[in-house]
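Need a sequence for this fold. Nothing fancy.
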């Protein structure tokens, strides 16, 4: 139960801080800025990895859990409880933000600013880069270690900085699903549910291509793919 509670609290903190930064940037007319929002996402991910990495692995993201599973590092029986915990934490965060800012129309929901195909491809690539880094710096199915938090938080912040204005730079189905459902902005939600999973799947093959050993099956000793 501790691992599931850690995932719930970690994802709650991620969504509350990250989407909260977006909401506060809107209501303060740019007081946080796009750079500030990006840094918030990157820094909160880094903090949660250091705080929870040794407990649950600090996945904080159903696409990351999926990526670890298809890589043979994470048992399938834990995928559903992990995902439910992540979705629950995200939902609590968006619900609280709705109580705090009831007039805000999106609550930080991810919405494409250009063509749908453009956002889908970008989100797939962003998830690929994120999962590729995670697989290469993590230990088995846990994001932990001296530099893991810096590397993973850094890639999240960088991707949010350059792609956020176009796609919202979600990389995380839980981060997108919760504010979309609470705010009613569900029209393009499919992009942010499918693309991160696809990107994680491709990242598994990318990691397998550059590492002869250690990327796949590190925990379960099962081959990936």
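Here you go.
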């Amino acid at each position: 139960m501790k691992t599931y509670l850690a995932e719930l609290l970690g994802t709650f903190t991620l969504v509350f801080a990250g989407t909260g930064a977006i909401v506060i940037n809107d209501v303060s007319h740019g007081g946080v800025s796009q750079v500030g929002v990006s840094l918030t996402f990157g820094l909160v991910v880094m903090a949660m990895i250091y705080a929870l990495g040794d407990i649950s692995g600090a996945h904080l993201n159903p696409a990351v859990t999926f990526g670890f599973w298809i890589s043979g590092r994470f048992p399938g029986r834990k995928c559903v409880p992990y995902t439910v915990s992540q979705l629950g934490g995200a939902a609590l965060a968006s619900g609280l933000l709705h109580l705090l800012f009831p007039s805000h129309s999106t609550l930080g929901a991810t919405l494409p600013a250009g063509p749908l195909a453009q956002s889908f491809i970008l989100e797939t690539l962003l998830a690929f880069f994120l999962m590729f880094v995670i697989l290469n710096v993590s230990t088995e199915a846990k994001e932990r270690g001296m530099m893991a938090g810096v590397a993973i938080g850094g890639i999240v912040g960088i991707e949010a900085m350059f792609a956020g204005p176009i796609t919202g730079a979600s990389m995380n189905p839980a981060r997108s699903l919760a504010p979309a459902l609470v705010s009613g902005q569900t029209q393009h939600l499919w992009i942010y549910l499918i693309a991160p999973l696809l990107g994680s799947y491709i990242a598994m093959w990318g990691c397998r291509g550059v590492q002869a050993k250690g990327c796949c099956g590190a925990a379960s000793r099962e081959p990936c793919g």
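For context: The helical segments are 2-27, 33-52, 62-70, 79-100, 116-137, 148-167, 173-183, 189-210.
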